[in-house]
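Page 37, top half.
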Amino acid sequence: MSGNDTITPEPLLQLGLGFMASKTLLSAVELGIFTALADGGRDRESLASEVGLHPRSSEDFLDALVSLDVLTRDEDGTYRNTPAADVFLDRAKPSYVGGILEMANARLFGFWNNLTDALRTGALQNEVAHSGAPFFATLSQDPVAWRAFLNGMNGVSTPLAAALAADFDWTGRRHVVDLGGALGAVPAAVLRSHPDITGGVFELPPVGPVFDEFVAAHGLTDRLTFHGGDFFLDPLPAADVYVMGQILHDWNPEQRRFLLKKAYDALPEGGTLIVYDAMIDDERRHNTYGLMLSLNMLIDTEGGSEYTVADATQWLRAAGFAKVEARHLIGGYTAVYATK
């Protein structure tokens, strides 16, 4: 018997056609399926009517979500959220992470169609490919796309923020500033669990109005401050803890080293810089999520990529940090704590 008799194409087909399942979930988030079911189960007709599904599509679409384990269906045909979907995909809950999925649906899904071009040319494939203007400057000119991008960054940061607030020893720390922290998910999580700490976000000025809305909604206006500026050009606000989360992967290695040295120089003795990203395992074999995000950075930035834990450790030590410790955070993410 040939060894090939035990090999089937099923795993390859599932992998190659995985975009179908991805788009099904992204469309469900866009349509508000999970928010519509947050108050309890609904039959197919009433749910389809509320979210605007055509009668031809509704049964297959909703049952596909059942087969993907994001909805359940009772014997009487009532659809309900799974526990995870109810916590993380209901727009009304503070635990909502669908912002990143909304952004993926609106922006990244289409750009990934050009991955082959990016692999052949090394050139980005996002909005900048058409305009030639800087990415953030271009995106911030479109209020809808800008808000969707910021909410997306906030969505992916929300579970990471909770993990970071619990993992790091905040004892004796007084002020944390998130450098490039979007709407402030990380300092908000820290401040909620540590009432004696204050915080700030250092971001491009166009982020300010959306940031103010987020902070007000979380009741942190008196403790969480916005600092407008460019961390390549402007002085960093004073703090005893800096956070760079999902920042270094936007830039090339030279720019990363510049930012780390700038943070080191601005921190007081004993101050800490926290870096977190979907860092690739040092063997470059296991963190599929990090490797996929690295390809996304190829598509979406001029010089960005994910990087290994060893890379981050080397850069931080070269910047001058005396103590560097890497710890797994959640999922495919690693946090590196570097103390001056």
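Page 37, bottom half:
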Amino acid sequence: MFGRKPSANSQPNEESNMTGLMKILGCDNPSRQGDVVFVHGLAGHAWNTWHWQNPKDRDYQKDNFWLTWLGNDLDVGIWTFGYSAARLRANGSAMPLFDQASNFLDDLENFGIGERPVVFVTHSMGGLLVKKMLNAAKNFSRNESKEAVLKSTQGIVFLSTPHLGSDVAQWVQSLTGFLTTVSVEELKAHAPQLRELDEWYRQNVEELRIKTKVYYETKPTSGVLIVNESSANPGIKDVKPIAVEADHDSIAKPKPEDTKVYLGVKQFIKQCLPSQKSLPPADNPISLTQTIPEKTVNPQQLL
């Protein structure tokens, strides 16, 4: 079910409760400056992809991760999108990127994303999903809600996104053969559909006025560099990919003491949002310049 919240007794690694668009913090504040939507990648998870701790750790602090940090530091709504993207058929299912993008766009429309400026923070295949979603929105621009999502998108953060695919996809298939899902097939290096999507984004990003921020990993995962610098580079004018001393998974899991990615993304989001002075007066009695205190709480309380 779209937007479904985890049950009171659930753990954040229960896949059945972590699909669709979900509220994390600040999403019900009517005077918020914008929305930030996190989108995980292949074999990812709407919560765990972004968390610096393992849910099985004894000192696990479920709500202490960079999604809630951003929600407390910025006047925005923080969302996360979960979807089925298993590597192997034995571990689950995965829809083709085109279908997943349509599903994602429908979720964004249903929750009113597009009424305010939007920034997407993506990891790995999640970046491809966002680009494909924007492509779908542009193809149906006569639809007002789809056009709103497209026009409200102010920026995208790509964390180790394989814009031209990854050789690891071929490597995984060679080990498992027919057991790989459609997502792995679509991520093969230099796959035609990825080249086409990459070209579309490069040709349209300036017209759409979408700011782009890129980070890439420098450490191998299990001895393999999943996304190299070349594939992580979207080839956009004046966009310099930033190297991070992390592997493919940890680049999306900044720890409290690791400020490189967190501060960079935070500053990027601020640059994508309109200044409070440029916003029209609010109809409600709360001043736009008034500080609205927010505490890190369980996201279940916000839904």
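Margin note: The longest strand covers residues 76-82.
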